[in-house]
Design brief:
67 residues; alpha+beta; two-stranded antiparallel ribbon; 4 strands
């Protein structure tokens, strides 16, 4: 298991979220998410990114309802 991020690392991540989030929302460019969540590239390649920016074009007009 990896050690927890240090304070400097967390400050940079917070600053990126603080500046990118409002920009993405104001310009309808995409959505910014903060982990913990897994990004699966393959069954063997699973990552937890620091920040995840998803393009607005990848979101449907309305959310799907899954039962």
């Amino acid at each position: 298991m990896s050690p927890a991020p240090n304070r400097y690392h967390q400050t940079i991540r917070t600053n990126l979220f603080t500046f990118l989030g409002p920009f993405l929302k104001a310009n309808s460019v995409g959505k910014l998410s903060v982990p913990p969540f897994d990004v699966r590239l393959t069954d063997l390649n699973v990552y937890q990114p620091e920040l995840c920016c998803s393009s607005q074009s990848r979101y449907p007009a309305r959310p799907e309802i899954l039962a």
